[in-house]
Design goal:
Number of helices: 5
Distance between the termini: 34 Å
Structural class: mainly alpha
Radius of gyration: 17 Å
Strand content: under 5%
Length: 123
């Protein structure tokens, strides 16, 4: 299936920056799984403290997860979940349960990447 090119130049996002953001979003599921794995590992070890690097990795995962989900909520509102399915799993607009047309959805998707870019630059 041919990927629809996003016109993000108007937001100051180059095609290489877009690829970086796209890869960052695609890792969202891996980061959720990684955070859960760290939390499960230490949940039953009440008297032990996690290693410093695990604490740092968990904090980075939380920060990245929050960043992506906040950007999706700000851009998509009630459609945040479907927006994340689209950008993470490449589910096409036609297969999403969204209350808007194609043009509106892709405008919201561009806004998502703009917001995410701003959040990453500020982080």
């Amino acid at each position: 299936m041919r990927k629809r090119p996003l016109r993000l130049e108007e937001y100051g996002i180059s095609k290489y920056r877009f690829r970086e953001l796209e890869s960052f979003v695609r890792q969202h599921g891996e980061k959720i799984a990684g955070l859960q794995k760290i939390q499960e590992k230490w949940a039953w070890r009440k008297n032990m403290r996690p290693e410093r690097r695990e604490l740092l990795r968990a904090a980075q995962y939380r920060r990245d997860i929050r960043m992506v989900e906040e950007a999706a909520r700000q851009a998509g509102g009630v459609m945040a979940g479907e927006l994340l399915r689209n950008v993470m799993e490449e589910v096409p607009w036609e297969r999403l349960d969204v209350p808007c047309g194609r043009e509106t959805f892709y405008r919201i998707r561009r806004q998502f990447y703009r917001i995410l870019d701003e959040k990453k630059r500020g982080a």
